[in-house]
Structure formats: structure tokens, C-alpha cells
Amino acid sequence: MNQKERAGILYTAFSYFLWGILPIYWKWVQHVSADEILANRIFWSFWFMVVVLIATKKWKEFTVLFKNLLQRKKQLAALIVASLLISVNWFVYIWAVNTNQMVEASLGYYINPLVSVLLGVIILRESLSKAQILSFCLATVGVLILTISYGQIPWIAFILAFSFGLYGLAKKLIKVDSAIGLTLETLTIAPIALLYMLFLMFNGNSSLFVVSFNTDLLLIGAGAVTAIPLLYFAKGVGAIPLYMVGFLQYIAPTLTLILGVLVYDETFTPTHLVAFSFIWFALALFSLSRVRAITARRRSKLSA
To answer: pTM of this prediction?
Structure first.
């Protein structure tokens, strides 16, 4: 492993670490409603990314791309869909964290890789290997165990997994730098976020510039905590193999699960352990099958 790959692993792992501990930040502002947190997160993320693009000399590239998108209806529609999907994902995650449902939120991001592959099969007509089919079966057993124990479908986990999976599909139609991508997505929905923030202010229901200086800093800072992990991810992911990214992505839900159970005293029963064990084993099998497939492709290229 060369120095570039080692740095890539560190940057990527650090980005997932930041995403994993992000619930701590939302807990600091849990006295604010999830919808207001979301509006501030979108609005301030856009302005933070504007500063980043100017500082990294990508602003011109952003404006050119934005003008091109306005003339391409298919890509513009994909951008709008991606913006709405990530907004739904962010809202449900913030709401889940601040209503003490981090265990179920972590489940959503554990099953997200499998959901993404499932969407690829349904929408992109991709095929599955035997190991991937077995992974789906094991994960399904885990989800069924939780569903039976809850007495209802773990809808928080499913919304998080499917919204992020569909977001990934929409992003495939807009192949741009991740920093520019986030700026475009937040720009698309920022006017709505601003209007909602003004609506709350005029009706006396806003927390921004009303509750405390610390609350103001945290709401405005939501833009930075959204963008910084993404920037580290973008810096690291290009330097490491895709299968390594697949392994590292489980850092985030694992940290969220640990925080939920050990720090915020959420319930994790023996039934949870059995269900999660099925899902963890499914993910291990799924990840190993991906590594084997990538290794086989490399060998065939070398022998060709």
C-alpha cells in the first residue's frame, strides 16, 4: 500500500467517523424542531459550500455546470429529485436521533448497501450473484425479526435506506465533483428552506436569533458539519479501491448504534442482537463477494 492509498483510507475513514458521531450535534439542538433544523441545515450548507467553491477556485466550474443543467431537462429533473430525496433523508435522520430512535436509524444505513443493489436490479436491470442473493435473504430474516418484535415495520430504517439509495441513483445522472454536487443540491432546495425559515420567524415559532446565541451558532454551523465530512470523503475516496470504501462505510452506522445504546441509553434487547447479527452476517458476506468479484476482474484484465 503506497502513501496515497494510506492517506485515502485515513480521509475516507475520518469522513465516516464524522458521519457516525453527527448525532451528537443534532442532540445539542434537540430543543429545536426537526423541520427547522433541516431548513437551517439546507440554507447554511449552501452558503458554506459557496465559500468552499470560491476558496478552491471551483466557482467558475460551478456556474458553467449550473447553466448547462438548466438546458438539460433530464439532468435538471435528476438534480431536483436528488435534492428532495436527500432532504427527506436528512429530516428523518434528524427526527430519529432527537426522538431517541438512533438504533433504528443505524439499521437504515446498515441495510442501505443492500437496498442500493436491489434498486440496481429493479431499475438498472443488474444481475445478482448467489452470495448477494443469500445476503438479501439473511438481511430479510433480520428485518422480519425486528418487524415481528416491534409489531410494525421499521419504517425509519426503510425510509433512510431507500431515500439514500434512490438519491444515489439520481446522482448517477449528474456526474459532477462532490462539492459542486452538494452546492447544486442545496441551491435547488435553499429557496424553500429560506421561505420556511421566514414563515417561522413571522409566526413567532423560530428558534434562530431568538432562543440563545449558542443555538444560533449550532443552527448556522449545521452547514459546516454537513459539508466537512463530504469534503474529506471526496478527498479520500478517489485514492482507494471501491471495495475498501464498502468496508469503511460501516463505520458510521456502527458508531451511531454505539452512541444510541451506550451514551443515550436506547434499548438494545436480545431480539435486537439476533436481528442485527443476521444483518451483520449478510453485510459481511455481501462485502466479501464484492471483493472476490473485483479481484477476479483484475486477474482477468491482467491475463488478457
So the answer is: 0.91
